[in-house]
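Model: Ready when you are.
Researcher: Fold this.
Model:
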Amino acid sequence: MTTPLATNAFTDILEGRRSIRKYDANVAIPRSEMLEMLDEAAKAPSSVNMQPWRFLIVESKEGRATLKPLIRFNTRQNATSSAMIVIFGDMQCYENADRIYAGATKRGLMSSLMAKTKTAAIVPIYRKYSRQKMNDVVKIDSSLFAMQFMLVARSHGYDTNPIGGSRRIASRRHSGWMRAGMCRS
């Protein structure tokens, strides 16, 4: 964390964002504020609003120990940050179309007819995508969420550092974390 922002002007947030290599280990972001920032970041745009990001908040020593060998060049950030946010991409995000569009209908953003029409049109197309094409869509959308999170965190007075992922994280941990209810979407 750096000095809290004196302004929330977007240009100041954008130009003031830096990738931090070592954090003040004594700073702890309250869980409620972390969830608030993640909820704000989840307003990021995504292809046909499928919101394919899933995330895991890693705060415990045990969780950090699990991450350590998977992020070998970024262990200082893992050791000193208030939390590590691990972002996953959901390759079957279209299975949530009914829930996503029902939520949009409930908030008055679209009619129920439009929600049904969109679901009927989009889900079959996504199901036919090749693994590579779906991976591309999910990677772009999850990256938008990640960037939005970094800007939201900056607007709250915190600095961040993007760390590239690892297939090992997804293949070894993601399915277990999802089953344990540790990932949020």
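Researcher: Now this one.
Model:
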Amino acid sequence: MPYLPTSYSRLCPGERWYKGQRHYSGTYWSATMRDHVIYESRLELTRLLFADFDPAVRYIGAQPFLLKAELEGRACKHIPDYLLVTEQGPVVVDGP
């Protein structure tokens, strides 16, 4: 399994905090990564905790890549929440 530097998981540096914000973002110290991993909601934090405690997970990358597609003539973009590299292969984790 090739080593993926943790810096790949830092595509969105720093948290954006403001009074009255509706989301709950931050960083979590991951034992799997031996570094901080970002999250943008409590649901993402919960998924991150499950991944970190799963012994099959070897790598956790936050907001790992940008997906681009054209749907019905419109350009659409989306960044998934996490990329997990497991013993069985890569897994993309994304929420509603």
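Researcher: Key takeaway?
Model: The first strand starts at residue 26 and ends at 30.
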